[in-house]
Write a structure and sequence with these properties.
About 35% of the residues lie in helices and about 20% in strands. With about 290 residues, it is an alpha+beta fold.
């Protein structure tokens, strides 16, 4: 889809997504939901593409369909299962794919949260423009690439650059993303990293919970920052979980946290990691600048 500017794009999606979400959520089974989804080629075709490129989905970890702030289910299960069905990724039960969930499923969420609607980050936030990219780069249906391929590549280049297997996956994605992402000067970005290292067993295995805070170059006087939340499991495999813009108040609260002493650590932003569980654990937090 092609739009003249961010405002026209946002207006269009606000006219489409709420009604589509209600129609899909009212379906009694996956087959009915899938039939409705097929008519939405802007959504159906990217999911079909992902079904043929499972290595892209492997960049992501798992989530739960529950909002910790709103205290309710985020997306109707029939929608979640149907998205997974088309992408050839099981999305049933409590644990679901974080990448598919935080992009396409969030577009189809109708819950109100203290921070607005879940779709806002892809419809209204203007993430692409803040980073000097085409305004539709991280929109529901960008002119080049897709929402999930574009955001996977962008987050991966920032947060997963030290992992050889993931770098190879990112290189293979060039035909599936907008060209401006491939040529972007990532090394010029300013980033802080909060790492929470948590032992999980008596064999000294541990997981890392990582929050990257990236300053957009076009943020202006009252800068928003891009929060990237990801995990490294006990095998050393990194897993993206989510990303969204945050204001200075949250940035400050994250950077001023206690560090280098034992602290209680929990998973956040509906992340799920089986080896960690759901209860808080003791770990060590460190906060450092990152040079990309």
């Amino acid at each position: 889809m092609k739009f003249q500017n961010h405002a026209s794009m946002s207006s269009y999606w606000e006219g489409v997504l709420p009604q589509l979400s209600r129609e899909l959520g009212a379906c009694k089974d996956i087959s009915t939901c899938k039939a409705l989804l097929q008519a939405q080629t802007w959504l159906y075709e990217p999911l079909r593409t992902l079904s043929r490129h499972q290595h892209i989905l492997s960049l992501w970890g798992d989530s739960r369909n529950f909002d910790e702030f709103a205290k309710e289910q985020i997306v109707e299960p029939v929608i979640v299962e149907t998205v997974g069905e088309v992408a050839k990724r099981q999305m049933t039960g409590e644990v679901i794919h974080a990448g598919l969930f935080h992009t396409y499923c969030y577009l189809l969420s109708l819950i109100e949260t203290p921070f607005g609607m879940k779709r806002d980050r892809w419809v209204h936030a203007g993430l692409g423009e803040l980073f000097g990219l085409p305004f539709d780069t991280f929109s529901p249906a960008p002119e080049q690439g897709t929402l999930l391929t574009n955001i996977s590549y962008f987050l991966g280049r920032i947060s997963l650059k030290n992992y050889a297997k993931q770098r190879a996956t990112l290189r293979s994605m060039k035909p599936l993303i907008t060209r401006s992402l491939y040529e972007y000067p990532y090394e010029e970005l300013q980033c802080w990293r909060v790492v929470e290292k948590v032992p999980i067993d008596e064999h000294e295995q541990s997981v890392k919970i990582v929050t990257d805070l990236v300053l957009p170059p076009m943020a202006g006087e009252n800068p928003l920052q891009l929060l990237i939340y990801w995990l490294e499991d006990q095998t050393g495999r990194p897993r993206l979980i989510t990303a969204f813009l945050v204001g200075w108040e949250m940035v400050e609260s994250l950077l001023m946290q206690q560090q280098n002493v034992p602290v209680e650590i929990s998973l956040r932003f509906n992340a799920c990691l089986s080896s960690f569980g759901t209860a808080p654990r003791q770990g060590i937090r460190s906060i450092t600048p990152v040079f990309l």
